[in-house]
Specification:
Strand content: under 5%
Largest sheet: none
Oligomer: single chain
Shape: rod-shaped
Structural class: mainly alpha
Distance between the termini: 62 Å
Length: 177
Amino acid sequence: MTTMVDVLDTAVKIGLGALISGVVTYWHARQKENAETLNRLNSKRQELLEKAASQVEQVNHVYLKYWALVIESTRYDLSGTEWPKKRILELDEVKDELFQSFKYFTDAESKILLINEPEIYDLMRGYGELVVKFRRGVYVGKLGLTEVQINSEKSEIKLAREKLFSSLSKAYINGLV
């Protein structure tokens, strides 16, 4: 025969089971939500790193066009022939393009600051400053400018770019793991 104690015992067991099940379900849902949020944040971080790298490359591409034109002009000067007017006009366009490309660079810097990567930011600033120094110190018509000097400065910029991308790569890979 079923007594009141048996009924209460069964009710307590069912209640505790439901309570435990509810707590575990809630805890599991929170863990899953936290993991999904972390994955979304990490995905966004990776996206920002990719965009920043792409924007740095836009500046690098324009800088290399400028370098190539200055080298070409220097070679014309050494040969004693006149540099074609068309190339002079192209150089003027590239100078303006280089100036304009730094808005992408500034945008890339802001992305790096947003994800709190101060080492990458410092390397990025150093790279940008070297490109600016190159543009100010290496130009068509500068007396005594040699291809060796130009390439020496280009090598310095290349090393700074390699360090920057090495650091970007490490941050990117760390986000994938």
